Fold:
Amino acid sequence: MTLGRCRRLLMFGALLAALTSCVGNAATTGAYSGKAHLSAEAAASALQTAKLAVDSSAKGNLFDSYLEIVLSQAEDDLGSVQQQFDSIQPPNTTEADRIRDRLDTLLTRAASILADIRITARRDQQAAMIKTAAGIPALADKFDTFAEATA
Amino acid sequence: MKIFQVALGILTAIGGFVDIGDLVTNGLVGARYGLSLAWATVLGTVGICLYAEMSGRVAAVTGRGTFDLVRERLGPRAGLANLIASFLVTGLTLAAEIGGVALALELATSVNYLLWVPLVAFFLWLLIWRVKFSYLENGAGLLGLALLAFGFALWKLHPDYGSLVHQVVAPHKPGTERLNSYFYYAIALFGAAMTPYEVFFFSSGGVEEKWTRKDLMVERANVLIGFPLGAMLSLSIAACATLVLKPRGIEVSTLGQIGLPVAFAAGKVAIAFLILGFVAATFGAALETGLSCGYSIAQYFGWQWGKFVKPREASRFHLVVLLSLIGAAGLVLTTIDPVKITEYSVVFSAVALPLTYFPILVISNDPDYMGDKKNGRVMNFGATVFLVIIVVASVAAIPLMIWTRAGQ
Amino acid sequence: MSESARGRVLDVNLHLLDRQIVDRDGEFVAKVDDLEFERGADGTLYIAKIMVGSRALGPRLRGRLGVWMRSIGERLSTDAIPTIDFALVTDIGSEVKVSATRDDLDAAPLEGWVRDHVISRIPGSRHAGE
Structure:
């Protein structure tokens, strides 16, 4: 294979990878709002996953290992949502800053709840775990409201 | 005795139908689109039934695998293009399946999935090396029936069956979803149902099990009864996701989420069956894809292949299988998310379909090979219609993948 | 080759090239990758040998893939390209049957190498999984 062909192939592969996964910048408030919307939905998904797993476990329907894995994956998902959202450069408007602050607050609270659930689950403190998880629906509602506002 | 054989074949086909691609794609789509994309699964199932029947018939009548005949019938260049496309996609699928087994074992044991990968690859190789072909097929297929836990969970959820059926027959894309992602996932479901390796494996397996014309009825029963019932299993995975995950706004990105509806509705015993089913289905598919990597290369070059001879008499074949397993395991060990690998493998399967399916249509139509058992007019009509659909899906796949950023 | 088959006119593309070669016991040998011709006393072309292997197949594939295949073959072996004497062919149908056994033909040196250096070293290589 010639060098030129090789280079072209690598460039195509890199382009394909980039096109299918870019995050990057959000030039306008509208675009930024759209990204915030997706992040809010993803965060709500992680919370609801944890809640569903806790509920199933509370009914005695889930093995400990399965519960642990689902909870840790939900936490990881939330963490990467927060990380990805924070890495986006917001446009220079007050609206964008407002969106950023609000979502960050919600994301931090979500991270804290999921961490608590993970800890109580690993300590086999089922009652405490269920109690913490009881706070999820309210928080998920807040994410939903936020998502609607940023749609 | 014949009835037993037919029943065994059907059960094996049902349990063996679902692989990691079906699990992930149906779970993901059910949680996001409800059952409005079930038509794509149904379409893909009809397609694979048609083409598997043709390739199985080729094996029973000629005693040769379809890949074996592709180079003869279409020439070495077309055959090589077919080989490269099939081998790469099958290798990617193999990696996805190995990842799937590891993820399932992680759910069962809390041991990180990466640690399972080398062990899984080793066991795959060991079984391919030592265990009789029919034991592998039947064992994995029957154990895969444990996925009926999804059907059980569906029943326990007491759904409004009428409403579910309505979603299937009168598909309605959710208003918040864009049309391009909708069709992207239609292609993904299609590719998940019509995996390229399946037809080549089916025909090579027919040679392994020494099918003759007398076995045609059994072969047809496997395909025409077993596969559709297996597809029902796929649909039940989607339905469970629709009923439990979608209302909660859960976006599927892990294998664990796909099983949660069963936990929610059914209980620990069902979850135990579920995990057994996950492992059996993905392990079985890994065996098939691993063997298919060997079949495709060996058949193109005319090497002795197959488990029906001693390993030392098919040395190059076994070496290719070994290297494929190592390569696929290596890909998983790079810590790329196996669910992501799966999502890409089903789309690339759709891309490779025309190259891998067209030769089957040609060969099963050729009276020189098939004699009086060549395709009838109805079969040809159906298969040709599907070829058009396959080409459309294949051409649209990559542009849609880019346009929707892999389904976002 | 029987008397009645000698002098048969073949469309080599349709009936011979890329066909599976099968030995006396029905075992797979190789594919007909290429053919070597010779001119008879009367000037007509007869098939002298079947050529086997990646160095034989490479030149038939046009373009880069062909060059690549041939160079892999050249890297693996510096001996002459394996051939099968066409006189050994007993039947040309959907497969090409030859009258010798696979071991006698020695048309696939790579198979032997892999067998001796890799596969034989793994326990269980003599069992067909029965």
